[in-house]
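Annex B. Sample input.
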Amino acid sequence: MTKTAGQPTESAPHRTRRVALTVAAVLLAGLAAPATAGAATGRDPGDADPAPARYTHQSLDWQPCAQEPTLDCAAMAAPRDWHHPGVGADLTIAVSRHRATDQAERKGTLLMAAGGPGGTGLRRPAGLAADAPALGAAYDIVGFDQRGVGESTKAVCQTQEEFQEFLAGDYRDQSPAAIDRVIANSKKLGASCQERSGDLIPFLTTEQTAHDIDLFRGLLGERKIGYYGPSYATMIGAYYATLFPHRVERMVLDSNIGFDSTWEKFQLGQPMSFQRRFDEDFVPWLAAQDAAYHWGSTPEQVRAHWELRRAALHDSPIVEGSLTIGPNQLDSIAMSAIYRAAAFPDLARLLASVDNWQSLDPATRATVAKVFNSYLNPEFLAEFFSVTCNDTAWTKDLDTWVRRGAENTARWPLAGARTLAFGAVCAAWPVAPAPEVKVTGAHLPTTLMLNSVHDPATYYEAALGAHRALRGSKLVTVTGNGDHGQYPTSNACVTGVVERYLLADTAPARDLTCASA
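Annex B, continued. Sample output.
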């Protein structure tokens, strides 16, 4: 084959990351196969025990969305517990749709879900339709706020003021007093969830959300749906496809959670990948921008500057009104910004602002404060911990988490320092784990998976495990890239593969590699 930039090449899923990074992109000629080839008809487990008619026969009252007029919105009633649908008060699931702009050639319905857990998805169809107009023309794109967040029935755990205690101090501090304080705050967060949302918390699981999706599908009048899901939504999609395989027409999973295993195992891998992205991608970029940001002209100087600034915030955090910028907040904002390379300049400006805090004008300080308060908040983490602690079993021994925390802090401090704080929440979580959902790929059409090799949150190694578990899936590896979320972007190679699959029913016959755009 003739090697051409911007086109995919064959790759084996078991190749090491080092090999994947060096693979050149080549033409896709001859690698196409029908997306539904070999698909078998699966049985919907819900068919044997259908939901009560008050759910399946309800009508969705579509009205223009208040905050996004290009969408229609409605409220869907769902059982609190799909395993006992007659018990407990109903939940409200806020749903939305963007009608296909070419109704004469409408292909079907494409459902999308949000990441997190903790992200809201109600307005996301508008963004996908705008950024991928070919999909917006061919599909009704529908979305929803999953149970527990946004305009759906919400979980409540802590106020913003109470949550500040959870983020207080320095997670790197390994003194006995600091460790005791972190564990106490983690236990307090879980207890507050139980106290304020105890009748809802046990039912905030990925498996329950999958049943909500199938109810939504039925109310839309669709026998089958397409699915696009980034980040945590890859797990939602994999669970939905496992429970309702014959309802899936085609599915794209973008930046993949390790849904082949437990949340504990997956999250224990994240300190490595966040550190890799920070050290190998962001730090060299910032060193090359020393003339603009003055953080050092070499990676070594940038890292030294980071440690000095972080140590200064340890000794004297910036506190102004509701804003606190301490070492934990600095780590968190860096983690949020390195999800996409396009945000590197934003992070650099924030770091420069922290360096020069006293000289900033009030308007700039207010902007910086808003950014620092936006990444981790009590609303997001109420859902995040409910789902991650409920979905799969966690180690309950706190001594194990203290040891893991110390090891990860020493080896991968950016995200590793918070290992104890996050792990201790699930160790003390007051709810038993949900029924296991084992993802196999049985009875599914070809599923398309996307992942970059340096993704900090949904790391490539976990994507390989998920790919192996989801038999029949095809993985598109994006090399020279660490962005979280690969579609839609300016990468013509990825766009071509995804849109041939979703619009022309043509899936790659083998795993592929796309070079970074």
